[in-house]
Amino acid sequence: MAATINSVGTNPKPINATVVPVTSSNTIAKVNGQAAPRHHHIWLVTGPAGCGKTTVAKHLSSALNLPYIEGDEFHPKANIDKMSNGIPLTDADRWDWLTLLREESLRQLASGAEGVVLTCSALKRKYRDVIRVAPYYSHDVVLHFIYLHAPEAVLLERVGQRQGHYMGADMVHSQFSILEPPTVEETDVISLDVSGPMDDILRNALDQVLKKIDEVASS
């Protein structure tokens, strides 16, 4: 899965994106006499097909000992049939799916999870905004997007190496055509270039997440 690029196309990096520390209270609650973290994190790994969302998310889930939610598994059959046939999803196809992912994340937190790791392409800002509603339901929840980006040619190569996945190479191009990279106003986004070797990507992703946890805890 490792890939190295040399002038292979435009890398849809965030638009003037800078990582701004998430600010929140660092109050420590007591649960059955034990100190408990005030914050519960939702780590949403996002980006177009082929960027490595599943690989990165599973690594974070394992390293942080958090439940993992594979967004693709929550698509209704009608959505999967469309994508399998190279038909792009419409906004109407996505709304219920996005809401379901948000609700499942909150359900797992309510069931006792300290955090969750979720995958979802979330290609447009309005899709990300659906998930951003989560902290309004539970004020101890802190939401983070981990935006994985690379040139289209790199992602096309990776998708072409997949076996038995319904997301074909045609869908990479269709996703790039509607992709809205995060802007500077989206201060809950961690941006990672995933053009290089996967081992480096995984190490960088975990480092950034641990740094963000420390920032939130000390804010």
Commentary on this structure:
- There is one protein chain.
- With 219 residues, this protein is an alpha/beta fold.
- 42% of the residues lie in helices and 16% in strands.
- It contains eight helices and seven strands, in the order βββαβααβααβααβα.
- It has helices spanning 53-64, 77-84, 91-110, 125-132, 134-137, 152-160, 169-178, 198-218, and strands spanning 29-31, 34-36, 40-46, 68-69, 115-119, 141-149, 189-193.
- The chain has a five-stranded parallel sheet, with helices on both faces. A two-stranded antiparallel sheet has the order 1-2.
- A hairpin with a 2-residue loop joins strand 1 and strand 2.
- Helix 3 runs parallel beside helix 4 and helix 6 runs antiparallel to helix 7.
- The longest helix is centred in the C-terminal third of the chain and has 21 residues, at 198-218.
- The radius of gyration is 17 Å and the shape is globular.
- The chain starts with 28 loop residues before the first strand and ends with a helix.
- Residues 1-8 and 16-35 have low confidence and may be disordered.
